[in-house]
């Protein structure tokens, strides 16, 4: 083992390397754990985003109206003791619904 401190990787900005050099061994270990967790989180987010893009490429169901996005799901609502199908999807913070038709009691 060398008695001189290690050189930071070229990818690490000089100001970060300088700040790390000022930290105690315990804080450096905490930073290392945090950095590993953050890297895993970002990789997971990238995989999820990639999967979402793949889902958007999937074919639209034949009975899906043109003004309803492919990500919409079918929901059953009960109104006055009658059950109806609705397309539902999220637009920002709100949920949008569009009538599909009555629920067939034989299904």
Describe the 3D structure.
This protein is of the alpha+beta class and 107 residues long. It has 2 helices and 3 strands, in the order H-H-E-E-E. The protein folds into 2 domains: 14-57; 62-107, no CATH class. 38% of the residues lie in helices and 24% in strands. The chain has a 3-stranded antiparallel sheet, with no helix packed on it. A hairpin with a 2-residue loop joins strand 1 and strand 2. The mean pLDDT is 85.
What topology does this entry show?
Layout: H1 14-21, H2 25-57, E1 73-79, E2 82-91, E3 94-102
Antiparallel strand pairs: 1-2, 2-3
Properties at a glance:
single chain; 107 residues; 2 helices; three-stranded antiparallel sheet; 2 domains; alpha+beta
Share of residues in strands:
15-25%
Average pLDDT works out at 85
The number of domains is 2
Give the termini separation.
72 Å
Shape: rod-shaped
Unreliable spans: none
Number of strands: 3
Number of helices: 2
- Rg to the nearest angstrom? 26 Å
Helix content: 25-40%
Structural class: alpha+beta
The largest sheet is: 3 strands, antiparallel
What's the SSE pattern?
HHEEE
Task: Please give the order of strands in the largest beta sheet.
Answer: 1-2-3
Question: What's the short version?
Answer:
The protein is α+β, with helices and mostly antiparallel strands and 107 residues long. It is built from two helices and three strands; from the N terminus they run ααβββ. Strands 1-2-3 form a three-stranded antiparallel β-sheet, with no helix packed on it.
